[in-house]
Amino acid sequence: MPPTLVGSNTTQLAPPPPGSKIPGGAGSRAAAGPRAEGRQRKVEAVTDRVRRDGKFFRLGDGKFYVKGVTYGPFAPNVEGLFLPEREQVRKDFEQMAELGANCLRIYHLPPKWFLDLAQEMGLKIFLDVSWPKNLAFVGDPEVTEQARSAVRECARECGNHPAVFAISVVNEIPPDIVRFSTREKIEQFIDELVAIGKSEAPNCLFTFANFPTTEYLRPRSIDFVCFNVYLHDEKTFRNYLARLQMIAGELPLMLGEYGIDTLREYSPEKQAEILDRQIRAIYDEGAVGVFVFSFTDDWFTHGWQIEDWAFGLTQRGRDEAGYRTPKPAFAAIKNIFQRAPQVADVKLPKVSVVVCSYNGASTVESCLASMERIRYPDFEVIFVDDGSTDGTQEILKKFPWVRNIRQKNMGLSHARNVGMNAAEGEITVYTDSDCEADEDWLYFIALGLVRSGHVGMGGPNLIPDEGSWVADCVGLSPGGPTHVMVDDRTAEHVPGCNMAFYTWALKQVNGFDPQYRKAGDDVDVIWRLQDLGYSIGFAPAAQVWHYRRNTVKAYLKQQRGYGEAEALLKYKHPEHFNTLGASHWRGKIYGADDVGIKMGHDVIYHGLFGTGLFQSIYRRPASLLVMMMMSIEWHLLAGFVTVLGLAFTPLLWVALAMFLTPMFWSAVAGAQAPQPRHRHWLSRPLIAWLHYRQPIVRGWARYSVR
After folding, report:
1. What is the pTM of this model?
2. Which residues sit opposite 618 in a β-bridge?
């Protein structure tokens, strides 16, 4: 039976403009299940505090992009503070408002009047905690206590003020100190300082300011990744931003400092040109924002007024009205801040968003409501209902602007092909009905395609906080939908819940193979595109929220479906599978640092005598030997040894050891897993159990189909 169009089948309605209110749309919710409300980006009780939202920040119910400048320190004023006089600070804040800045970064503990004035002027503050760092500070009780006290005081005095959006517990730890104290001890100490800060200011964000030489530092408790970077070549800078996005993973990436000296490096006009290019690149590459170093050339540090550099957007002196004289870069940055984050000067093509669903009423409404908030100049949403028998069609009546296609149940691949053939956009984007899209999702997907030679593009799918400790444990277990990266920009695989292709490329390979009814269709179509010499890219800021299976039963059912898909894929793409039928990847599986068991230590390239400017870390992948000892084949072999043990009794002890080995490694995996957001005394045992069961369930399904 051919698919039938329901609703708007002759006249295509344009998507609603951003922020518009549609009757029965985002403003109303059907009682369609436990997830009908969706994430809804709940506004916390303290609505004037910036909070993390996946790879971005949010203030109130809107996204918050950092458009910042660094400020000071200055020569001591009459109060002995490293700030200008109060009226001069007000003048500077007025100029920041004219610039379009919404944040400033300061390096000393400010007085309350400074915070109050920033709040009055609509500015947020990123505050660095200053404490001494000697070569052995981690092992020095006096210095470590000074650091703890400094962070505690800063968090207590400033962290609860609504003008403070984030605190950095330390700024740029020198690499020789890190090598002397060891990476692990430094990371643990940073985590300790963050915990101290959060205990005093739970609504404040915390991080530490890193720089390229110690990019291998990865503390676990920070709220976002902050780097100070000074690279002036655009290609090198963009490539390094892509690397930083891989380091940041699911956390927001923010540049804590970026600037150009107009005294020793370039002219003021050249400063404006480079800053215009590089600050655009920061937003283009999906960072959450930047602090331009600095607001003014006026700088005082370590008891000296600095005269031999000039990084400022304004000059040192003031005019008769008390304002600082802008440089040419001031106007360039003002233009970018007004447009951020969508600052690219490229024409973006029309996009068709295809949402396929089968009995997904519990999440359909929140999915389509998120589409109403998308900021993109030209897109359509096509919903393919693959024979749902629940309340999906009733919910769709609330979204008359969505192109609603209804068909009998034919499977996921067939539904995706129906969406592809109905698409009018140059780019076809796929997501699932249990996903919610970020406002700038399509912008970053399309920009990534237009600016690259790729024919496909993917993005991260993040796990929303459902308030369930079981869902958290499932999210920390192996086998979830994720992407596989060959390098910082090229993906070997992107999951079907967040993938896009040029429509012509999809049609060239005849779309999706209908034999894949549950899973595997995304893997198959990408491998077929790659066989033709095409490549797939990755846009780290093209974020969707993807509800994982929130029960153990649903999770194991999903893994069975993946196992069945692997069996089908093996016959079609044997070169991607080993002799046991398990898929193997050339690239790095995203999230593998936290899932699986590693044998041995990571390797850090420090350079000659630790002088390397970019000291990269080479993380050891999960152990293949351990994976083999947890596989279905290992259990079958143990069963065979048990049978032999009936004839030769000592082999029973060997079989027992073989059965206990995967249990042991599962317990290790549960102990090494990150702390779930919602803790329960059964969290780690459940994670261990899922690590034990997942390869058995998936492997058994693979063999049952074969």
Report:
1. 0.88
2. 603
